[in-house]
Specification:
The structure holds two protein chains of two kinds.
Chain A lengths: L5 E6 L2 H5 L2 H9 L2 H6 E6 L15 E3 L2 E3 L4 H14 L1
Parallel strand pairs in A: 1-2
Antiparallel strand pairs in A: 1-3, 3-4
Chain B lengths: L18 H18 L11 H4 L11 H15 L32 E3 L11 E4 L10 H5 L5 E2 L6 E2 L9 H5 L5 E4 L2 H5 L5 E3 L5 E3 L19 E3 L3 H14 L5 E5 L13 H11 L3 E4 L1 H14 L8 E2 L4 H10 L13 H12 L4 E6 L3 H5 L3 H4 L4 E4 H10 L18 H4 L6 H14 L6 E5 L1 H12 L7 E5 L15 H13 L8 H7 L1
Parallel strand pairs in B: 9-10, 9-12, 11-15, 12-13, 14-15
Antiparallel strand pairs in B: 1-8, 2-5, 3-4, 6-7
Helix pairs in contact in B: 1-3, 1-7, 1-14, 9-11, 9-16, 10-17
The chains are: A alpha+beta, B alpha/beta.
The structure holds iron/sulfur cluster and FE2/S2 (inorganic) cluster (FES).
The site of iron/sulfur cluster has 13 residues of chain B, from α6.
Chain lengths: 85, 512
């Protein structure tokens, strides 16, 4: 996709936005280091994944899916991956 | 040191998705689903278990405490008052009364849930572990009340003597002394919150003006307003099933833009509301335009005294009760919500009007005698979002049309602090060539009271006064989803897209 090593997708569907996706993407975007190493994308709702918001917010880091993604968990995971690149 | 820009206590959690936010939202969406699934009220005992997982307390010491908190919050979501926990009644007493489209909420709207309240200490200056009991101990030297002593290896403040002058806080080399306030009481601009005999937060309902800021400031989810989401869901179901001739109108406050995600346009939000089953959606900025015209016209006559805006019910109540002498200064016009509803009821007396906004005070306003006939229910943006989720409406996928054209740029600007004042000043200038209007404004009720004090003392002599209860104006309201700064940006953008800058004077003027 780009020369950045890690791809982060945050779902911006209504179900995920309701459960904090906007705040989560803002948190990712406000980290300089993450901006440097990762491309942050918005993705649409892929229906069954969020299970009508019960498993929102949905985040994908490279090919791994994270459900009920808490910012603290996602930030830690991303930093772990940055370290391993 | 880097300035981290410390916010006022009650603003610190705003725009952060905390477990308190999460509990509130899951509870709302499961409540709507419960109704949509046509479950019987007798099945309500099962609902809390869709919201919390027993045996896995996530935010409280034990699941049983979480359970009683969630049950009380379910009552409030259904519009009912919390039950007295000592009275040995079921926490779901009378819940079946809320399973109808009849309005059930009554005052008081804002309630403390005792099971959740942590009895936070009231305003105190305290010494933290950072204290080194240093040789200089400037704290005790500057203390005018001799309240600080050193009984052991740390400074100690005698709370009886302390007058909270903060002198010690300013001089401690280790910043070891801080003021600890109670979040709910600090959020309350009219000082309606103290403690009951047992130390729980207590809202003095005769002082409370239902601004709702305490509900989003308590870090323990212990304060909540009542919701009409259950009754609106019933109204929608009845409407959609019987397609009865009574039309449902949604009127949407100017702060709605940007609330449901950055990718979602105002047109998508309107379309989403129609998909819920509403017949028509209208901007409340329409009523704002109406108010602008009424207030701008006032400046044609010689004033001699100030004119206060009337669009924020909490501000109006606060101003009138704190300064009864100024009651006549506050504009007599209705709020934009009521002006908009009036327009609808004029052409369709049978219609049901549902106001959707950032505001809890509007829930109160809609219960007052003057307004009850115009506005049938009030929802917050957060409650609307719960409806979208429960109805499986994914806003970013909806179509963009038709364009929204109910209001002017100035009317749409009402959502931001100083937007109301700007609209009136610019309109008065444009229409009547009045240019010298002296303007003062305040947001948050404590700032509003300071402003009025200045006027009462004769320190300032404004012609026009704008008061708003929420920080930053309506975009900072307790019923919002987006952070106030994001919302403010979107409001400005949508205003710029309006067909005209000024309210349509011809049409409005003749009507008033
Ligand atoms: S902030 Fe919340 S927990 Fe603390 S006293 Fe107020 S209501 Fe109780
Ligand atoms: S809204 Fe995010 S996956 Fe459905």
């Amino acid at each position: 996709m780009s020369d950045k090593k890690i791809d982060i997708f945050v779902c911006m569907g209504t179900n995920c936005t309701f459960r904090g996706a906007s705040q989560l993407i803002e948190a990712l975007r406000s980290e300089k280091k993450i901006q440097e190493y990762c491309s942050i994308h918005e993705m649409p709702c892929s229906d069954s994944v969020c299970d009508h918001s019960r498993r929102s917010p949905v985040v994908k880091i490279d090919d791994e899916l994270f459900l009920q993604a808490k910012p603290e968990v996602i930030l830690e995971e991303v930093y772990k991956r940055i370290k391993n690149t | 040191m880097k300035d981290i820009g410390v916010k006022r206590v009650f603003e610190r959690m705003r725009g952060i998705y905390t477990p308190v936010t999460d509990l509130r939202r899951r509870l709302l969406m499961e409540t709507v689903r419960f109704i949509l699934d046509k479950k019987d009220p007798s099945e309500i005992e099962a609902l809390p278990y869709d919201i919390i997982e027993m045996g896995k307390p996530t935010y409280r010491c034990c699941s049983y405490r979480e359970l009683s908190i969630v049950k009380q919050r379910i009552r409030l979501a259904f519009g009912l008052a919390p039950v007295d926990e000592k009275a040995h009644t079921s926490l779901f007493k009378d819940i079946e009364k809320a399973f109808t489209s009849e309005k059930v909420i009554t005052t008081p709207l804002v309630n403390v849930i005792k099971a959740a309240c942590e009895k936070c200490p009231e305003d105190q200056v305290i010494v933290t572990d950072k204290c080194q009991a240093c040789m200089a101990h400037p704290c005790s030297i500057v203390c005018p009340r001799n309240a600080i002593s050193f009984p052991d290896d740390k400074a100690h403040i005698d709370q009886e003597k302390c007058i909270k002058c903060m002198k010690c806080v300013q001089v401690c080399p280790y910043s070891a002394i801080t003021r600890m306030v109670r979040p709910c009481a600090e959020a309350c601009g009219v000082q309606a919150i103290d403690s009951d005999e047992e130390g729980y937060a207590r809202i003095h309902q005769e002082i409370c003006v239902s601004c709702g800021l305490c509900t989003v400031s308590c870090p323990f989810a212990a304060i909540s307003d009542k919701s009409e989401i259950a009754q609106v869901t019933h109204a929608l179901m009845e409407h959609n099933e019987r397609s009865n001739h009574q039309k449902l109108y949604a009127i949407v406050a100017p702060s709605f833009t940007g609330q449901f995600g950055v990718k979602v346009t105002p047109e998508m939000i309107f379309e989403g509301i129609r998909r819920l089953g509403f017949d028509r959606v209208m901007e409340v900025a329409y009523g704002a335009d109406h108010d602008t015209v009424i207030l701008a016209e006032k400046f044609k006559e010689e004033q001699g005294t100030f004119l206060g805006t009337s669009c924020c019910p909490s501000w109006v109540m606060t101003a009138k009760s704190a300064y009864p002498d100024f009651a006549g200064n506050i504009a007599q016009s209705f709020t934009p919500m009521v002006e908009t509803a009036l327009k609808i009821k004029e052409s369709d007396a049978n219609a049901k009007v549902i106001f959707i906004g950032p505001c809890i005070a509007k829930k109160y306003e809609a219960l007052t005698e003057e307004v009850a006939g115009y506005v049938d229910y009030v929802l917050t943006f957060e409650e609307l979002a719960a409806l979208f989720v429960a109805y499986d409406i994914d806003l970013p996928t909806l179509e963009q049309s038709p364009a929204i054209k109910d209001a002017s740029a100035l009317g749409r600007g009402y959502a931001n602090a100083s937007g109301v004042g700007t609209a009136i000043i610019r309109t008065a200038e444009e229409e009547f060539g009045i240019t010298d209007i002296k303007f003062e404004k305040a947001d948050t009720l404590s700032a509003c009271l300071d402003m009025l004090k200045g006027i009462a003392k004769g320190e300032t002599h404004p012609d026009l006064v704008e008061g708003m209860a929420c920080p930053g104006g309506c975009v900072g309201g307790p019923g919002t989803l987006a952070s106030p700064s994001t919302a403010a940006r979107h409001v400005a953008r949508f205003a710029a897209a309006a067909d005209s800058v000024f309210p349509n004077f011809e049409e409005e003027g003749t009507k008033s």
